[in-house]
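User: I'm new to structure prediction. If I give you an amino acid sequence, what do you actually give back? Let's try with this one:
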Amino acid sequence: MKKAIIALEDGTCFEGRAFAGSGEFYGELVFNTSMTGYQEILTDPSYNGQIVTMTYPLIGNYGVNPEDEESRAVFAKGLIVGECSRIASNWRSTMTLPEYLEEAGIVGVDQVDTRAITLHIRDKGAMKCIVSTEDFNKESLVAKAKASEGLVGRDLSTEVSITEATTYPEGGKANARFHVAVLDCGIKLNQLRIFNELNCECRVFPNSATADEILACKPDGLFISNGPGDPAGVPHIVKTVMALVEARLPTFGICFGHQMIGLALGCTTYKLKFGHRGGNQPIQDLRTKKVEIASHNHGFCIDADSIDPAVAEISHINLNDNTVAGLRHKTLPLFCVQYHPEACPGPHDPFYLFEEFMELMKKEKSA
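Assistant: Good question. You get back a string of structure tokens that encode the predicted 3D arrangement of the chain. For your 367 residues, that looks like this:
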């Protein structure tokens, strides 16, 4: 076990113990309020470029296993917890959390006041940081944090997207109910698993794919996935989505996909102070007035004042801060949400959105 220093760009420093990894690690320091699901969080491509602080005090007690991975790799740049469990006990566990982080080359820090970190981020906002097990000079570390590359304006999505189109499930799906084109901006596997359970075959495209390439597979619908970073940093994706919207494909977007659709419809986005990350965010469906609890992971949001009421309407809001949590087009078969109805981790309240997408494709297919 090594000493570790967490230094933020505003000069604040925290000291802890590195229970995995060694060296220097850079990223935006954020917090997640989920009590479980640390493996899904670590492998969620939306955390590319970020160091995650878990607010729940004890992490790692059930270990890790291959079935809970949400992508092909660990994309978070580091994990900070109050206490890493000394014992991993679960019948599904194949490895401990420290072993998992070591294998991924990611730093893990515990014996640190995660409550203080969370309160600081809530007060000052998410910010650039460095975690070091080598340099313990705080002035030096703060200078490194300030000089590091932040998230604003960066294209982090292309770093995590696939590079060649592929089919899910592998080999295709005989007698599939629908064929869905998926734009991978940093997709979580559970989104594809759900489409498979709903008897859909997915053709997954890299975020560099053109509208013509996507339309060439003659899909019944388009799904735009979650992803990391600043939505304003990927104009090439927005351009593609604009062309696909004009093609009148039934379209469903999640998180980063929601932001891509918003930008394609002429909206603007802004960076939230500390973002929404956790499995317990209250969302209200304005159509039914029902409240659902949903999983969130985003640091940017669509500006409600930039939505043209003649084009789209707000369908869902986050009840914690009244930010835009869903959009629905007034005339086109298109809707999107800012949160994660596929969960992993998180509740399954918003699963109905996948079913609404099925109905949308069914309606357009029969028209």
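You can read the tokens as a compact description of the fold. Here is one thing that stands out. The chain has a mean pLDDT of 96.
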